[in-house]
Amino acid sequence: MSRDELYHARRLAFSRLKDNSHQVALTKFNGVLGANIDLIGGLKAKIAEIEKDNELLASENEELRQFTLDGYQIAKSVTSMD
Questions:
Q1: Which helix (H) or strand (E) holds 1?
Q2: What is the rounded distance in angstroms from the CA atom of residue 70 to the CA atom of residue 64?
Q3: Cα distance between residue 36 and residue 40, in whole Å
Q4: What is the largest CA-CA distance in the chain?
Q5: What's the Rg (C-alpha) of the chain?
Q6: What is the rounded CA–CA span in Å between residue 75 and residue 67?
Q7: CA torsion 51→56→58→62, rounded to 10°?
Q8: How confident is the model at residue 49 (pLDDT cuts 50, 70, 90)?
Q9: Dihedral (C-alpha) 35, 36, 37, 41: value to the nearest 10 degrees?
Q10: How far apart are CA 32 and CA 39, in angstroms?
Q11: pLDDT tens digit string along 11-39?
């Protein structure tokens, strides 16, 4: 009888050890996952900022292109007047 009780106690202890080990691993995993989610949020914000800057630069580039074309047409008209 005591041998069975000892076996049962060992088995119970091993089961608790395994559960505790699993819980520690799960807690670690959740911590790493939370950190990664925070990093992804930061990256999304940075991407949005870069896209906004890109749109602004594209708009400025279009204005400069139009200014250049206008200047070319003016120069062409002045040259043809001679």
A1: none
A2: 10
A3: 6
A4: 120
A5: 35
A6: 12
A7: 170
A8: very high
A9: 100
A10: 11
A11: 999 999 998 999 999 999 999 999 999 99
With tokens 């990664």, the residue in question is 36
Per the model's pLDDT, the better-predicted residue between 21 and 80 turns out to be 21
Rounded Cα distance between 14 and 36, Å, is 33
* pTM of the shown model: 0.60
Average pLDDT, the chain: 93
Distance CA 20, CA 15 (A): 9
CA torsion, ordered 68, 73, 78, 79, to nearest 10 deg:
100
| pLDDT higher than 90, residue 79 | no
